[in-house]
Amino acid sequence: MQKSRLGKCALAALVIVAAPLVTSCAQQDPMIVSGVTDDYRTRHPIIIAEKDQVLDLPVGLTSFSMTPMHRTAIDGFLSNYRDSGNAVVTIMVPKGSANAGAARSTASEFAKFIRGRGVSSGRLQTVHYDAQGEDSAPIRISYPVMKAQTGPCGQWPEDLGNTYENRQYSNFGCSYQNNLAAQIANPSDLLTPRRMTPSDMANRGTTIDVYQKRGISPEFNQISEVSY
Length: 228
Hints:
Blueprint: H1 2-26, H2 30-34, H3 40-43, E1 47-57, H4 68-77, E2 89-95, H5 100-116, E3 124-130, E4 139-149, H6 174-182, H7 201-214, H8 218-223
Parallel strand pairs: 2-3
Antiparallel strand pairs: 1-4, 2-4
């Protein structure tokens, strides 16, 4: 009987000693837990940065003037030029290539055509790039614009099978952020709101008059939870 009583006392002592240990294991530092990010918007943020709009136009060995295809391509390329804030347009002409002579002649017509589309001479420059060994190096036209963009996708630093923490994988949300950034017409909308346009006073007055004359329809009273 005494031996049984001693065993019960020892078991009670063991439970009392072990309880603080279990409690201490359950405690977590809130600063450490909250410091681990699991948000795709933080891993793949949309940033506003300057990026070049680029158009490469092929030039044949014996083509010494613009073609209708060139005119159509440049016209479309410059359709949003005004949104860039009249940035500098650069024409890069190949040198050392087999079509270098044709490219120089064609580039001068490009410059004339671009000036005719409203780009001033002070905002247009022609430079050369080394294209040694190429037969038909293209003429590149570019100008910088502010764009919403994210980093490149396809980063897989960890094994996707490691899911015991039940957290988002590194590349999760990257394509979504990229697609969202590509659809933003005016990147400055992400920074500051636009000024509100003035209201149409005539339309507002007409709408209010119609509402006041119509009153409250019986149908609305039937489906409404408020008694008027």
